[in-house]
Design goal:
By secondary structure, the chain is of the alpha/beta class. The chain has helices at about 15-25, 30, 65-70, 130-145, 170-180, 205-225, 265-270, 295-305, 320-325, 390-400, and strands spanning about 5-10, 75-80, 95-100, 150-155, 190, 195, 235, 245, 270-275, 285-290, 290-295, 335-340, 350-355, 355-360, 365-370.
């Protein structure tokens, strides 16, 4: 019902940096949140020194929620926050309501109650957190102050580990898996010092995706019921690629045809499913093949709400309203910086994307790779030696 972006990018290949970029419109490096919070244990035992990054979104950062609130919006947050401990929770960053948001990146205590979430008390034994977050969001839509516009920021914990089946749908996907794969072993492939899953055949994870589908459907139906559809912008997006690659074993999902996954700066780690529905702007079923990045949401929302832009805040984001309307925008250069070691077997590095050309620099390995995504989406043909001048130019841009 909206516009699908085939090149919707997260600003980070892991969660916390991307979440900071959405809320601030600023690159994770500018906010100094470049790893998931608090990051890998034993940080200083690796070959390269660990950067001195932050463990919370600074209170002095002015968030999208705070900006909308100054213009009379009621602001609601539900789900995964992962941008700091108590004192740096959603209600400290511009949200009027916080349902389930805290310092943890995975659901505290798991997806089924009795969980251990300090900001979400379970109602009954065996309650599923995804359904509960949806119920709370539906309640907000029904009971909010009707005189105010609203921001509903729903951030599901699905499909973060632990991979726990959605009980209402798992039987369907187990049967489907048996028919499709006939219990043949899951193929894998080597990725540097890690292992990637090469087939999307995890029934438990599929059921968790299905839980999100059902919940999003319920929210869209509620907008219809409350006659809010024609005046509500809806964005569907993720904070990093699926967990495909791990050290010593394959992850629970596959991102084929994209390479690798969460933690990696290959496309599997940063290219996200992205759909935006903006009434009166987007055309149903439309597709945009131009790259956008998570910092863009902040200025885009302001323009869609007919509010003044704040380039002093969303300094790295660009409004994509022109793209949403089917119009052209000038070319952009996008950068990623992940100078950390990660459990996916990723080693510190950075990347740049310019006009379809992508260069990845691996600090740990002291090497770089060059790919042309237009002809090599899976990043299999390293052109660094064949295109030395282009590689040198992109490398110089990373180092500016």
């Amino acid at each position: 019902s909206g516009m699908k972006f085939t090149q919707g990018y997260a600003a980070g290949s892991i969660c916390s940096p991307t979440r900071a970029s959405i809320l601030t419109g600023r690159h994770p490096v500018r906010v100094n949140i470049t790893d998931w919070i608090p990051g890998q244990p034993n940080r200083n035992t690796n070959q390269l020194l660990h950067p001195d990054d932050r463990f919370e979104l600074p209170l002095e950062e002015v968030t999208l929620a705070e900006t909308l609130k100054t213009h009379g919006y009621e602001t609601f947050f539900a789900g995964k926050w992962h941008l700091g401990d108590k004192g740096h929770w959603p209600t400290d960053q511009g949200f009027d309501h916080n349902i389930g948001g805290n310092s943890k990146g995975s659901p505290p205590g798991g997806y089924y109650s009795p969980w251990k979430n300090p900001t979400l008390q379970a109602k009954h034994e065996g309650e599923y957190v995804t359904e509960r977050l949806t119920e709370e969001s539906l309640s907000f839509l029904e009971n909010r102050n009707k005189e105010q516009p609203f921001l509903l920021y729903l951030s599901y914990y699905n499909v973060h580990t632990p991979i726990q089946p959605y009980k209402k749908r798992i039987d369907h996907f187990e049967e489907k898996s048996k028919k499709l794969f006939q219990q043949t072993p899951t193929p894998t492939e080597k990725e540097h010092e890690g292992v990637s899953r090469s087939r999307q055949d995890n029934s438990a994870l599929a059921s968790m995706v299905s839980a999100v589908d059902v919940s999003v459907g319920a929210l869209l139906e509620k907008l219809d019921e409350l006659e809010l559809t024609d005046e509500t912008v809806v964005v569907f997006f993720s904070d990093n690629g699926g967990l495909c690659t791990l050290s010593g074993r394959a992850g629970p999902t596959s991102n084929k045809p994209l390479r690798a996954g969460k933690g990696w700066l290959y496309e599997g780690g940063v290219r996200e499913p992205t759909i935006i529905r903006a009434p009166g702007v987007t055309k149903a079923g439309s597709i945009c093949n131009k790259p956008i990045v998570s910092m863009d949401f902040f200025p885009t929302f302001l323009e869609l709400a007919a509010l003044p832009s704040r380039p002093d805040l969303h300094v790295d984001g660009k409004s994509i309203v022109r793209l949403l309307g089917g119009n052209a925008m000038g070319p952009r250069t996008l950068y990623w910086h992940y100078p950390h070691y990660h459990g996916s077997a990723w080693k510190p590095g950075a990347s740049i994307l310019e006009k379809g050309w992508k260069l990845i620099e691996f600090y740990h390995y002291d090497k770089f790779e060059l790919y042309h995504l237009g002809s090599d989406l899976s990043e299999q043909n390293n052109l660094a030696e064949a295109k030395p001048e282009r590689a040198a130019r992109l490398l110089s841009l990373i180092h500016i």
